Amino acid sequence: MRPVPSDPVQDEHGLGGVHIKYLRHCPRQLWLYMRGYRPEAGSDLVAFGEAVDDTTFTRRRDIDLGEARIDWVTTGAVVHETKSSRAHSPAHDAQVRHYCLLLERRGVSVRGGVIHYPLTRRTVDVPWNDDARDQAEDTEAEARAVISATTPPERLDRAACRGCSYLDYCWGI
């Protein structure tokens, strides 16, 4: 296992979008990821997602915040995130809200976010308001609690693990 380069539990601004996505997908996945277990490199689904990201909205540039990389931000501070899946997920909303929170902490007056699903040509708006800010802060606190735990969270039901690059670790397949 590779060492983790930073400690998001101690660093107030150390959580990126991948941490939030993993938390909402599976807390165990986040816990393992933070301990250096990274099977994503061999995942066909991850490679497909990267290909979709590389071939859609090619005129846009990523916004690198250090701990997070936003797909792009348009005039008026609207966060845009591209997803390779065909289905909307609460994890996607949580990730966009997290990006809005990170930008707001940097003094940007954020209006909200849009999730793009190029395979289905759909978009989903993610509002940014006091409730969304509270949700983003609660999600950060939850992620820090999972990361700082001394034992991994319980694995999910096996059906929820379909397609997960951590499947072999959790289920020994």
From TrEMBL:
<dbReference type="Pfam" id="PF01930">
    <property type="entry name" value="Cas_Cas4"/>
</dbReference>
<protein>
    <submittedName>
        <fullName>CRISPR-associated protein Cas4</fullName>
    </submittedName>
</protein>
<dbReference type="InterPro" id="IPR022765">
    <property type="entry name" value="Dna2/Cas4_DUF83"/>
</dbReference>
<dbReference type="InterPro" id="IPR011604">
    <property type="entry name" value="PDDEXK-like_dom_sf"/>
</dbReference>
<feature type="domain" description="DUF83">
    <location>
        <begin position="17"/>
        <end position="171"/>
    </location>
</feature>
